[in-house]
Design brief:
single chain, 78 residues, alpha/beta
Amino acid sequence: MLTISSLNNPAVKEAICLKKSGERKKTGLFLIDGQREISAALKAGWEIESLFYSHVLAEGKTSPVQQLAIKLNKFILV
């Protein structure tokens, strides 16, 4: 698990680059925002490469996304 404490973190910078269509085409990656959308992507068979996850915002909640965050080898705690 990687913890982010700055917007200058390389993982954050890489994610921000995905706002540009050229970067998405180049990498084959895209961003999904929100528990409902992430759950829909998982049901559709998409593979999650990285998950930016706030334990503060999800505290006391149990969801498929929270369970995924625990299972993933590469998730990022913000």
